[in-house]
Write a structure and sequence with these properties.
The chain has 374 residues and is mostly helical. Helix content is 44%, strand content 10%. The chain has 16 helices and nine strands. A three-stranded antiparallel beta sheet has the order 1-2-5. A hairpin with a 3-residue loop joins strand 3 and strand 4. The relative contact order is 0.07.
Amino acid sequence: MDWDEGPKKGGEFGPYFQSERNAIYERYLATLQKAGHTFEDNGAIRFRSPREHVVVDDLVAGSIDFDLTNPETHPDMTIRRPDGSWIFHFVNVVDDIEMKISHVIRGEDHLSNTPKHIELYRALGATPPRFAHIALIHNKDGSKMSKRDQGASIEHYIKRGYLPAAVRNYLCLLGWSPKDDREKIPIDEIVRLFDFKNVIRSAATFDQDKLHWLNGEYCRELQPEEFLERGIEAFKNAGFDLAKYSDDYVRAALMTCLGKINIFDELPGYAGFYFADDVSYNPEGVAKNFTVENKPRLESVRSAFAEIGNFDAGAIESALKETAKTLGVKVGILVHPTRLAVTGSNAGPSLYHLLEVLGKEKVLARIDRALATF
């Protein structure tokens, strides 16, 4: 995410870290104390509530009347602890005033705090900003998503190789919609279209499957260089030693995966065979493709491949099709056992292109190994 001003950006209302704003908080506390709005209680400084009704005119939740007249249900709020540290509610209000905040948009779990904040704004002689409290995010089972849920951790998405633009796009559509049924929307357009009128009052459901699909849409638009950079990182994170392979080989291997995956942590499973000395065979694939009738077929494929001079995708495709014609079978009959023999998997990049990248020597060696297991 980007921001207009703040840490590392600068602006007219710094410093932007609360740890550096102590003198500002001291000044505002003195204002409250001078006006008689505070009292001391066992070393803590508390704000003396005026004991009144506070109406919160919320841009999403609507107008809500909070009765703060009862000290039993609304005790006087601590604003500074005995150790001198500040309570969030106080410094939050001071920062809003000092930074001339116009709108506060936050989760509805803070709605009950808002009347306390409004009391502070008024005691400090400031006009409160407009508030908009957004419904919380729920898991698919209906439970409230918490910080402890894996899906709520930014690190979870970084480690799995999600693209920042895709995650941001998806988050923007939780509780808000442009009302035209689109899912993939550039952030500049989201900024232009956003309107509080289209914020949904009910809780939004976080759908990992939908995010997975949306990330795939963004992945398919990546430029080759960015895909290569992220792909290399994904393989290294999975423990692959790419230093053993030439840059040209790594690039060629990854380019066969461009546009084929949804998230980058799928890459090692999808194309790890490029960077392995041996491959393990998918058990279901073995049962289906390493059959008695397929052994002589794969032997014919191996013989055809051995005769190829320039081992490129075009020559490989021609050899496979010619072999299928000679054997009187469809090409697919040969494609599946060949793919399994060379990659260990039933699915993956384009067969002709992956064989070209692996090279003739490695392809023949892997077919020989597979034939020995039939």
